[in-house]
Every structure is written in C-alpha cells, then in structure tokens.
Design brief:
The protein has 5 helices and 15 strands. 11% of the residues lie in helices and 38% in strands. Strand 2 and strand 3 form a beta hairpin. With 297 residues, the protein is mainly β. The strands form 6 sheets. Strands 1, 2, 3, 14 and 15 form a 5-stranded antiparallel sheet that branches. A two-stranded antiparallel ribbon has the order 4-5.
C-alpha cells in the first residue's frame, strides 16, 4: 500500500479577536511553496473555517493525481548481455511536482538477485554483464487551469511558461541521442470582454525538472490584471543514462513518485511536515499556534 496524502492542522486562540479576524490571520500565510516543491508534494486543499478556536487544515498530495507508465525494449542478441535499447512513455500521468525516480525490475537471469547485483560472479568480466540500467525522467505540460480570469485584458495578452527547464550539456547519452536542453511550453489565450476565458497548449514543452510558472503579459497602455494560470505536469520523456547489461527479457519500468522514493513506506513520512508552518504563523498572529502531528494516509 502506498500513502497518498498528508494532513496538517494548526490551531490558534486569539483572545479579544473576532472569529473572522482570527481565521483571516491564520489563513494569511501561504504554504511554503519552495519546501513543498523540494519534497515533491502539492497542495490539494487549504481551509480555515470561521470558528473559535481558529483551525487551519492543509491537505497535501504525496503522489501525482494519476501515474505515468513506461515500457522498454532490449538490444536483440547483443553480446554485452542484452542492454536496454529504448524507453517509451506509454502514459504521461498528471500532477507531478518533480520527475519520478526510474528503476527497473525483473528481466534478469536467475543468478541475479532482486537488487540487480550478481550473486556469484567468477570474474570481473562476468560481473560486467550484470549492470543495472540507469534512467532519468523529465516532465512536460499535460494540463492547464485558469485560476483567476482577471479583467481588462487586451487581445494581445500572452502567457509565457517560465522556469524549471533542464539545461543542455551538448553531450551524448550513453543510451543514444543528444542530451539537449529542455524546451519551454507554449500556451495560447482566449480573451473575451477583457477576461481570460480559455487556455490551450500549443506546445507541451520538454525536459522540465519541476513545475514552471505562468507569467501573463498585456502590452496595452492600460494592461489588464488579476489573471492567474497554472499548469499540470506529466512525464514527457525518459532518458537512458546507462543501458545496463545482462537482461534476458525486457524489465518492468517502475516510476516511483519522488516523495515516496525519498520517504518510503515504513519510514517516518510525517517527519518533513512537523512544525512546517508553526513559526511563520506565530509571527503573523503574535500568539502561540498549536500544530497537530501530521496525519499520513
């Protein structure tokens, strides 16, 4: 079983303040985007009802909304022990914050254990025929959302996808193909009566290592404002960094969400979320804030 959510809860008592004022202050601090991105998790919901005491509940997604899938093929009859020849993304998935960790299972001879390490190799040459393959996943834009339509935008308004694109190194991947830089995604806007009413993906981009930001620009003398757009990411490609060797059949490509790889089931998955926002909230409220132990489900 794989865990999928973390629930964070913060409680504040503000003597003399109205319930509405307490709720407004408690909800005024945004979740730490950088820390959450570093962990590969996303905010699903964030609510602070008007009540006494004020209680803020944040639900985090530890997995993508849907999982990507991929398959691979072998170099047929290769004398080096059948290395992997190619990896094909068969389903991009959605809701990725960071690229998943790529591993390979199965496809090995009976003399190789589950860790892809030879059990008994008589010499170094034989060991060279039992190398596990290594690969790296990258993201592309698979969906887009209008978070706020804004107002007053001209027909010339554009949306630019900024950041999180892999730089190129000009070299060659071991598995073949150039290690080129990522390509920014391209979006097209529909503006009706000054509002952003539609966004389409002209180019999903390639080589993203995180979730980019969408910047809206209106070149009009009096530009529109208030619009907000976000993108959803899926797996766009998987680069073969080392084809490995010793496969007798094509192994299964396993794509593990980053958080689950960093904090596997059985570890303290609540650890990175304990007291995540307590200090910042106390600074704003100028009053103690109680953080419940994060609930992982």
């Amino acid at each position: 079983m794989t865990t999928s959510t973390a629930t964070l809860q913060y409680t504040a008592y503000l003597g003399g303040a109205s319930a509405a004022r307490a709720a407004a202050l408690l909800s005024s601090v945004p979740p730490p985007a950088g820390a959450l991105a570093f962990l590969g998790v996303r905010v699903i919901s964030d609510s602070t009802p008007v009540a006494t005491p004020a209680v803020r509940t944040i639900l985090l997604g530890l997995n993508p909304t849907s999982d990507a899938t991929a398959t691979c093929g072998l170099v047929a009859g290769d004398v080096s022990g059948s290395p992997i020849d190619d990896i094909t993304v068969t389903g991009a998935g959605s809701g990725y914050v960071l690229p998943p960790i790529v591993t390979f299972t199965g496809g090995r001879a009976s003399g190789v254990d589950q860790a892809n390490e030879p059990i008994d190799q008589p010499n170094q040459q034989a060991a060279s025929l039992d190398r596990p393959a290594v690969a790296q996943a990258y993201l592309s834009v698979v969906g887009v959302s209008i978070d706020a339509a804004g107002a007053g935008y001209s027909a010339a308004t554009t949306a630019t996808v900024v950041g999180q694109v892999k730089p190129g190194n000009g070299g060659l991947r071991v598995g073949g193909g150039s290690a080129t830089a990522g390509r920014p995604a391209v979006l097209a806007l529909t503006i009706v009566a000054g509002n952003i009413t539609g966004v389409s993906i002209t180019d999903p981009g390639d080589g993203y290592v995180g979730v980019p930001t969408v910047v809206i620009f209106d070149p009009a003398v009096t530009p529109g404002s208030g619009g907000a757009i976000s993108v959803q990411m899926g797996v766009g490609r998987i680069d073969l960094l080392n084809p490995g060797a010793g496969y007798v059949s094509a192994p299964t490509v396993v794509l593990t969400p980053y958080f689950q790889a960093a904090f596997p089931l059985g570890s303290d998955q609540a650890a990175p979320f304990k007291q995540l926002m307590t200090t910042q909230l106390e600074q704003v409220l100028m009053s103690p804030v109680s953080a419940a132990l994060p609930v992982i489900t």
